[in-house]
Structures are given as structure tokens and as C-alpha cells.
Specification:
The chain is 54% helix and 7% strand. The protein is mainly α. The strands form 5 sheets. A 3-stranded antiparallel beta sheet has the order 3-6-7.
Length: 399
Amino acid sequence: MKKFLAASLPLIIMLLSSCSKGKDMQTPPQPPRVDSTPVHPVSAYLTKAKETHDFITSNLLTSYKSYRVNTSTNTNSAFEWYNVSQVYADAAMIEIGDSSYLASMNATFKWMENMWDKADPDGGYFAFSNLDGSGASGTKYVDDNSLTGVVYLQAYDLTTGADQAAYLSKAEACANWIIKSGLWDTSLGGGFWWNTEKVYKPTQTNGLALQLFLRLYGITHQSVYKDWAISVNNWLTAQMYDGNTGLFIWQYDNTGKKYSQIFTYDNAIMLEAYLWYSKVMNDPGYLSKAEAIASAMNATLWDGVHNVYIFNTADKRINPAWCGWASQAMIRLYEADKNTSWLSYAKGNIDAINTVLRDPTSNGYFQFAVLDGAGRYTNMEGVDQAWMQRIQALMSKYK
């Protein structure tokens, strides 16, 4: 996640300074209109998920069972969270009943061992390696390791025997590194630093760690995970929650400077974290909190003209992974409370991304464009393909 955000920080700050600080919140948006055409026996979203997977295997998959960063400018490197997002994408296909994806999911999981820091007694995944797994080194990220653990726990839910045990063990190892990394400290009252450079404390880093600790507590019932989940949740509420919008801000830096932009994926992560909190802690109040986040996202981050979630409040572009994350969150919320309006938002968002960013020739997805499709980037990032495979597979259960 760091590759884009670090590079675009000056742009986002510049955009923020030119944006109006006020937003009329009095009239809530209406759910997007859903096409009433009868759904065919084979979902159009499942068809697109499979077409996306075909693009991935043709253009990004390597003989080592890793995935290259993109199809153009970085074809000889692998990123941790790009590869684990593909594991997540294949897990979605298994979730909807296609066990043929087990082999590719398990193969990439095994390849990921190349990125594990074997010189550190507590391990942790490096963010970068060569395609064959050599050269893994450098900075380690709490958000990447947290997401990896969360992904492995979905794989745990979908596997049995030795495979299931391996996924759980590695998810616990990710959590162990996070806990022992020294990246939680007393500055700003707590919170995890984004990475080992200790410059930023973002919402998404802590929100993903919260998800991991909650999931592990629900599976293992070890109090250490419950204690960490409570601590992280308390910090997010105290430091990152914006009562004016009902959403979570971006981050603080190590000088104490606050970055108040509101990102779609940050709040999608928090929505899902609250769903897990409700389930694992047996606290139905957190389902209500998740619904409140969803409503606030639809008031602040949903563009009703283009039927899509924007990247963030200072940057109204569309991206498959960052914006698509909201569709996953809305689908999971629908599964929790059966309110079909959430599915309408999830579907509208996917449809808009398909319209603006999908290449009809290759079935791959471009990285960014503005809402009407102008200024479309030419690069196709592996992580964007993975997330479009995943969210369309999840949507195919219902539309």
C-alpha cells in the first residue's frame, strides 16, 4: 500500500488545500438504482471475475507462482501485498464454490515464505522481492503483514488438515511480529506506525491490525489477541474518528501533524473491523456502528452522479483496489444485516469501475482515472486485477 501513498502525499496535500472544507450532509444520498433485468443463471460478475483471472494468469503469473507488480514498468519484482491480494482473490473463488482455485492459492502461499524475514527471530514479511523470491529485504509494514494475516485466515476458513494448520500458524506469526515489532509506542497515545521507518500512523494500518487480532481471538480464544484488539480499537476511536463526518481520517505523522483526508478504503476496513468486533466480542452495538460507517461513507465518499466511491475527499479519482474495497465491505455488511441497499452500492461501484477502468480488449484494469474516465492511466497493477477478481466473485453470489 505504501508504494502509491508515499509517492502521492504531496499531490493529496495540494489537492486538499484547494478543496472546500464544508459539505452539505443534511440530505442523505439515495441508493443507486439497480437494473431490474432478471439475473441469468451464470452471473455476469462471475464471468468477469474469471476473465480477470485469465488476464492475471496470462500477464502477471510467473513460473515461481508469484505475481509481477504490473504489466509494463515493473515486471521483474513482486510486492507482498500484491501477491497476498491474489491469494485473497483466489480465496473468493473458493468461497463461492470453485475448488479449482485451491491449487493456485496454496502455491502462492508457499511462495510467500521467500519474503519472510528469516534473520529476525520474530520474522515478519518484507514488502519486496524478486520474482523468484530472492532479494527480499528492506522496510517491513504493519499494514501489509496485517492484511496478509487476515487473508490467511480466510484461507484457513476454506481449507482443512495440514493446509488449514499452516495458514493459521502463519497468521499468528504475522500477529506475533506486529506485537513484538516495537511499532506501537506512546506517541499520540499509542497506535501502530505504518512501517519500520516510524513516520506515519494511519487508520488503515491500525484497522487491518484490529481485524487480524479480532479474527485470531475468535479462532484461538487467546486473551493476548483480545487485549490488543481492544487497545487498537480504543486508539482508533480516540485519535482517528471524525465526529463531524462519522468517518475515520487518514493519518498523523511523527511531528503530530494531522492529515484529515478521508479515504474510502480506510473506512471500508473499519466497517469490516466493526463487523468482526460485533461477531467475535458478541457485541451487537458494533453492527450498528458498522451500519453507521456505511451510511456516512455513502454521504461523504459516494459520487451519486457517477455511481462510484471516490478515492478520497481530496482526490476524486477511481481506482480498482482502493475504491473497490468499499464493495467488499458493503457486501459483508449485507451478509450481516440483510439490508439490500448495501448491495446496491456495492454493485453500482463495481459497474462504474468496469465502465471506466476495464479494458474490453484484454479484460485488464487500468490503475486510475477521474470520474468520467478522463486522464486514465496506462499501467495495469497486479493488485487492481486481484481486487476486481475478488469483489466480482463476491458479488456473483447475489447479482
